[in-house]
Structure formats: structure tokens, C-alpha cells
Amino acid sequence: MMDPAPRFTVLMSVGRSLELLPYAVAAVLAQSEPSLELILLPDPDDADAARRSLDLAAGDARVILLDGPRAAAAVQSIRGTLVATTTDETLWFPDHLTELAELLAEVEYGHLLRTELDPDGSVWVGQTALADGAGFRVDAYRRLGGQPGPDSGTRFAIESVTLTTAYWTGPAEPRAAEAEIVHRLVCDERSRRDLRSRALASWHTDLSAAQGAVDVAAAQIQELYRSRGEISAQLAEYAHSRAAFGQENADLYTQVARLTARNRRLIQRLRAIEASRTWRLLRRVERARAAVRHRARRR
After folding, report:
1. How far, in whole angstroms, is CA 23 from its chain's centroid?
2. Torsion angle of C-alpha atoms 198, 14, 18, 134, degrees rounded to 10
3. Residue 137 burial (CB < 10 Å; 0-12/13-18/19+)?
4. Most buried residue, 48, 111, 193, 254, by most Cβ within 10 Å?
5. Are residues 266 and 177 in the same domain?
């Protein structure tokens, strides 16, 4: 008889940090949510990943290996009503799936906070890569192909730690030692509390810095709005002045037109006077007077 369907199907990509792989698998199998199956998806180009995955799958009935062409059938192989994705460079805390189930009771897909750990002991809340650390309702996973959009939900819980790239750039032996150290940290409740506390403290610092940047940007925006208001007022004043100048200019044109018309009328009157008989007589009289004055001066 077939085993009852589990509540969770966990899909784990394998191939980056094989030294951590046994611990990553053990952390999944040690979840406080017991109803689960774990499907290992090794890198098809990495023979070691496939071999180690096969060894781990042989040790627990809940672990299933899908390699090569069968990896493409992972979506059809899912039996759980909820799906969680992870990688072999991430160690879950015991309540990871429990917290994820709380989130998926409210949204179709989403993620918990992603905590990253550096070899120097630094820990922080990092950017969540949804395709590698998300949770889905199974119908949403199939509809979206395991690639949720940016509108995913977030539950502000720290229930895992992901080792940074710096862990995997050195020789294999030191990497194995580092992996064991991190595994011990995750297995110890006091160490988990310490990781959470330090990650949240780092996140608070980052958020405070981000809030400071937001406050500066908000002040700059307010200054821009104030400057814009001043410029708008100046433009309105300019428009008013231009309108007033236009009116004055129109008044001047009106006055010039009136003076021009008056000058034209005066010229017409002058020409009429010059053409009159009286004007001709007056000019003769004026010429006679001028001749008399001239003779008088000569004497």
C-alpha cells in the first residue's frame, strides 16, 4: 500500500557545497514538522553531486533522488500539499517548515527571512532568492513553475542560515571542517538564538541606515517641492508682468494711433489753409511788409 501523501515536499538543489550536503539533508529530516518528503535534484553535470545524493537517498525512505532526465519530472513527482525549496548550502533550523506553513496558510507563496553566514562569523539578513528559498501551495508552484513574482508574502522569522560564497572557495578539507562547525551551531538552541539575535541586530543597523537615506531623500524632495513652488510663483509673477506690459504696450499703440490721426487731421487743415484765398492774400501782405522793412534797413 502506498504511503500517505506528506504535508510538505522539499525540493533541494545539489551541487554547490557537497561538504554541507549531509548536514543540509539532516536538517530537513529533523524538522519539527514530521510529514515531509525530500527530493534531491543534483546538478546533471556534477557526478559527485549525483553520487552523494544517491548515498543519502539510500539511507532514508523520505529522501528521493531525481537525477538526469527525471529531474524535469520533479513537478509531477510532488505529493505534498505544500512545497519548500532550498539548496545544499543552507541549513534549516528545526521550525523552518512550521513557520513556513503558518505563512502559506495566508498566502499562495512566500518566504522567511534569509540569514547569511560568513567565515569570519558575520551574520546578516540577506536578499532572499525566491527560487531557492521559497514556500508554495502546490497548485501555485505548478502554476508558476516554481518562480514566484515580487509580490510574494514574507514572514519575519529566521529559521535557516545560508553559507556565503566565501566558504566554498578554498580546499575541500577546510570546507568540510567549516561545514561541521556550522552544523553544530544549527543543532544548538543557544547558538541559534545567538545567530538570530546578531542577524536581527545587523538588519536593524541596515534598516536604520536605509531609513536615514530615506529621510535625506524625503528632505530633498521637500526642498524640490519648495523650489518648485517658488519657481511657479515667479512664473506667475512673470506672466502677470508680461500681461501688464502687454496692456501698457497696447495703451501706447492706442495713443500713437490717436496722435497719428490727429497729426493727419492737422496736416489736412494746414493744406486747406494754404490753398485758401485768405492765405494767399496774407502771404502777399507779408512779402510787402518784408520789402518795406528791408528798404528801411538800407537807409
Report:
1. 35
2. 10
3. middle
4. 111
5. no
The pLDDT > 90 percentage for the chain reads: 27
218 inside domain: no
In terms of DSSP bridges, do strands 160-163 and 109-117 run parallel, antiparallel, or are they unpaired? parallel
Final residue before a domain boundary, out of 147, 167, 187: 187
Domain range for 274 is 243-298
Q: Are residues 49 and 155 in the same domain?
A: yes
Q: What is the pLDDT of residues 223-238, one digit of tens each?
A: 767 777 777 787 778 7
Identify which of 90, 89, 147 has the alpha carbon closest to the alpha carbon of residue 113. 90
Residue 233 falls inside a structural domain: no
- Sign of the dihedral through C-alpha 46, 48, 52, 57: positive
Q: How far apart are the first and last CA of the chain?
A: 161
pLDDT confidence bin for 8, thresholds 50/70/90:
very high
The total of other beta-carbon atoms located within 10 Å of residue 222's CB is 10
pLDDT at 127: 63
Q: Indicate if 32 and 175 belong to the same structural domain.
A: yes
152 and 265 housed in the same domain:
no
CA 10 to chain centre: 30
Per the structure, how many domains does the chain have? Answer: 2
Helices (DSSP H) in 127-188: which residue ranges?
A: 130-133, 138-144, 172-187
Q: Answer whether residue 180 is part of any domain.
A: yes
Domain termination residue (choose one: 163, 187, 211): 187
pLDDT of residue 299: 67
Give the residue among 10, 3, 25, 6 at the shortest CA–CA distance from 141: 10
Q: How far apart are CA 195 and CA 126, in angstroms?
A: 13
